[in-house]
């Protein structure tokens, strides 16, 4: 039994690693689902002063602009995603649902947002515009792979009391499941050259770098290129 | 004979010698010197053989030291696991991706081989247990960091892989510490999977304690059947599984709003309070009937906890504090009287 346990454990480690790396290969080696050239506004460096010394890894963080989410994530959409919007007054919170989120870069949603409010020069132009359970259906609807990213996310619902309405209304909120994008060693030099020793500066007026972000068959992103601006 | 049987025999020999000394002092029994010497030689031979073959504790001092060694092994394993995590994160940045992946894969493999080496060198398995837990930590780090490097969407199935790894090592070497690690991962996977049945994403599974009830019951049911080849394993299944169930019920009995049940908060809390008392009673009954002291103690502890939280709800706000604590003390005395009566009934039944 001891020998079987030892060999089984060793084999399990190898097999699980092979499965994980096989999934990565499937994501990256097939045709791209999306490829966008973003800037520091959409992909700022993830910086944690407290952990900087303890963690030498480098990651960017997808900065999703949810300014206009309430325009499309209303009661009808929430019902479509599986929420029970009629249960206002019921105290039990409904669990978050896994969805695919459509992110539009520098498109009509951003232009509409700019008309509504004067944006911060560092504001992200990556707008959340739609969500659904089926990524393929969403890709057919948002076909341009250089403008639309489709990534896994969570959607939640809360009831908001407004003085204008008789009853509370259901509002949705979104959260990417994996907003971190790891920066591998081959792209670190370009990124570090762009930001110098001021990687921690959170809101630059002009973006200091551009990043080509690729997304594969499993809707998992990776960095294709980093270029100082 | 295995290690636990050898330890049980050594404990019986120790108890026999103490009782024989007491009987001789009280002049009830006195063995003839030749018979006494023969028994003594036989016992000493047995104990020497057990100590050589199984590395068991043959004296009270050794037993106390063993407990210390078990604790040191646990704390050492936790500290070394944390060291592995922090060491990797401190130095992984300047490494190329293939090197990072190679190191992450090598970690659990090397630690597992190290565990085998330690097990061959030391029969008491304290070092093997320590290195085994570090191997589990390396495997956790392995999958977690692979997820970070390749931006993989998190999945609950990682818990299943960690559970299988820890359980393979636990059963391979008969190590209880690794069994606990394996069952923890297994229950996390079961709870997360149960959570997805309601339509929610698995990362939200902790928000609904009912997800843990099914997992806890499943694990405790696996402990209903003894596992003679693995002493103590069935008891860990029973007690750990029930502990998870009891804690989940305790939370739901106080916060009904996080339940799945389509009832009002008050009705949900009342239902779980009642279920808690019934389950505590059943655990005590089953534990006494099947001679499972761990289950009896767990049932009694949670029975009292449920009672005290209920008393707090009822009386804390409106009652003077001295009276509240006086009543708690009186309730404890009442519980003591009831349990003493039950203990007496048990003694009468045996006689």
Would you write up a description of this structure?
The complex is a heterodimer of chains A (229) and B (351). Chain A has 229 residues and is an alpha+beta fold. Chain A contains six helices and nine strands. The model of chain A has no long low-confidence stretch (mean pLDDT 88). The longest helix of chain B has 32 residues. Chain B is an all-alpha fold and 351 residues long. Chain B is 79% helix and 0% strand.
- Quaternary state reads heterodimer
What is the number of beta strands of chain B? 0
As a percent range, the share of helical residues of chain B equals: over 70%
Count of helical regions of chain A = 6
Biggest sheet layout of chain A = 4 strands, antiparallel
Please state roughly what percent of the residues of chain A sit in beta strands, choosing from under 5%, 5-15%, 15-25%, 25-35%, 35-45% or over 45%.
Answer: 25-35%
Round the mean pLDDT of chain A to the nearest integer and report it: 88
Task: Please state the average pLDDT score of chain B.
Answer: 89
Structural category of chain A = alpha+beta
Summarize the structure.
The complex is a heterodimer of chains A (229) and B (351). Chain A is of the alpha+beta class and 229 residues long.
List the helices and strands and how they pair.
The complex is a heterodimer of chains A (229) and B (351).
Chain A lengths: L1 H28 L4 E6 L19 E3 L7 H4 L2 H6 L16 E9 L2 H9 L9 E7 L2 H7 L6 E13 L8 E8 L3 E3 L2 H11 L13 E7 L5 E8 L1
Antiparallel strand pairs in A: 1-8, 2-7, 3-4, 3-5, 5-6, 8-9
Chain B lengths: L2 H23 L7 H22 L5 H32 L5 H25 L4 H24 L7 H17 L2 H22 L12 H13 L10 H22 L10 H26 L2 H23 L5 H30 L1
Helix pairs in contact in B: 1-2, 3-5, 4-5, 5-6, 5-7, 6-7, 7-8, 7-9, 8-9, 9-10, 9-11, 10-11
